[in-house]
Amino acid sequence: MSGSSHLFQFASTHGRRSVSRVDEAVEVLLYQCPKSATGDPIVRAALKACHDAMSGNSAVQNAKTAFEAAAREIGILDES
């Protein structure tokens, strides 16, 4: 999740936001997703994928895919 282009946009209570780095994706999952979703297995898997990518143990694409799935599942992914 690097480079100048954004990976995707998600809808938050503060409007649309673009995510372009793994650490931003973690921030979204920890602080922007609904509290009721924080224990969701998909959200936990996305957090693990992001942490693995940040530590160099996994590809960034895996984190992106997992984050998109979690964001879609909890209803914050903006696919427009």
Automatic annotation (TrEMBL):
Known Pfam families for this protein? Answer: DUF982
Q: What is this protein called?
A: DUF982 domain-containing protein
Q: Which domain of life is it from?
A: Bacteria
